Amino acid sequence: MKMPILIHPDPRLKKLCDPVADVTGQMHALAKDMLETMYDAPGIGLAAPQVGVLSRLIVMDCVKEEGAAPEPVVMFNPEITAVSDAMNVYEEGCLSIPDQYAEVKRPAEVEVRWIDMDGDEQTAGFDGLWATCVQHEIDHLDGKLFIDHIGPMKRQLITRRMQKLKREMARG
Question: How would residue 52 be classed by pLDDT, with cut points 50, 70 and 90?
Answer without folding.
Answer: very high
